[in-house]
Structure formats: structure tokens, C-alpha cells
Write a structure and sequence with these properties.
Elements (H helix, E strand, L loop, with lengths): L2 E11 L3 H10 L1 H8 L6 E6 L8 E5 L8 E10 L4 E9 L6 E13 L2 E12 L7 H24 L6
Antiparallel strand pairs: 1-7, 2-3, 3-4, 4-5, 5-6, 6-7
Pfam families: Bet_v_1
Protein name: Bet v I/Major latex protein domain-containing protein
GO molecular function, one term: protein phosphatase inhibitor activity
Length: 161
């Protein structure tokens, strides 16, 4: 099994790191389905809660999405440094060649506001490799969600202030 590491996003935003981290990491189970239902229909906790390392949450996608759900396990949370590490352990959003994926999301305070870096470690089945078109789809999806969250937070400065 090979592991392939890719930077899926390296984005700057005028929104404060604390607000982005709250919306995209700690409270995404509430924030995303309510404000961006076209990205996630619902988020359910299978084990634990959003502040617990080891919690497992299932993200259910809208009916028109090309896949139905993913289950993520939170591996590390560092709220002081705006860092989240989680593993996608189940779901139909990956090609059959991926065993599982580990993601690291870091929100760094910058002169512009925030620099958000999202890195994926794809653990492949056998000697499979990740296809460039699958990576592009993942990158595009992340950018769309990030920009939609950013726009909402800019338009609503009281949210997570």
C-alpha cells in the first residue's frame, strides 16, 4: 500500500483564522448543512461530539450529489493553533483504489487574515496511484466549499465573532 500526499488547498482569506476554524472544523456539523445545504444535507455524530478526539461523524450529501456519504474520525484537534487532523474511514466519495485518506487542515494567522492549508494523505490499495482527475475534483470541491463559507462569514461578521 502506497501513501500519496497532496496539498489540496493553500488559500488566503480576509476572514480571521478563529472564525474559519470554527465554521469549517469545530462547528461544521451545524454550520454547513444550515448555510450551505447544497454541499451537505446533514452531519450526524456516530460517536462522541465535535470537540472529542476519536469522534466519528457521518456527512450526508444532497440527493443530487454524485455520492451519498462519508464517515470521518477526528484524530487531532488543536484549537489554540487552529489545526485539525481527521481520517475518512468510510464512504462512496473515493475511487475504489483508495483504502482511506488522512487530512490535515491548518488555519494560520497572516497579514491578509488567514492562510488555510489542507493536505491529504491518500492510502492506496495495492500499488494503485491517485489519478490526476480525481485530485482535481477534490481540489475544486474544497475550493468551492471554502469560498462559500468565506463569503457567508464576510457577509455575516457576527457569526463566530
Amino acid at each position: 500500500m502506497g501513501v500519496f500526499t497532496y496539498t489540496l488547498a493553500d488559500i488566503t482569506s480576509p476572514v480571521a483564522a478563529s472564525r474559519l476554524f470554527q465554521a469549517l472544523a469545530l462547528d461544521n456539523h451545524n454550520f454547513v448543512p444550515k448555510t450551505l445545504p447544497h454541499f451537505a444535507k446533514s452531519v450526524e455524530f456516530i460517536e462522541g461530539d465535535s470537540t472529542t478526539v476519536g469522534c466519528i461523524k457521518q456527512i450526508n450529501f444532497p440527493d443530487e450529489a454524485p455520492f451519498k456519504y462519508v464517515k470521518n474520525r477526528v484524530d487531532e484537534i488543536d484549537s489554540n493553533n487552529f489545526y485539525l487532523k481527521y481520517t475518512c474511514i468510510e464512504g462512496d466519495a473515493f475511487p475504489d483504489t483508495v483504502e482511506y485518506a488522512v487530512y490535515e487542515d491548518k488555519y494560520e494567522v497572516s497579514e491578509a487574515g488567514t492562510r488555510c492549508k489542507m493536505v491529504a494523505h491518500y492510502h492506496m490499495k495495492g500499488d494503485s496511484v491517485m489519478k490526476e482527475e480525481d485530485l482535481q475534483k477534490a481540489k475544486e470541491g474544497i475550493h468551492k466549499v471554502f469560498k462559500a463559507v468565506e463569503e457567508h462569514l464576510i457577509a455575516n461578521p457576527q457569526v463566530y465573532a
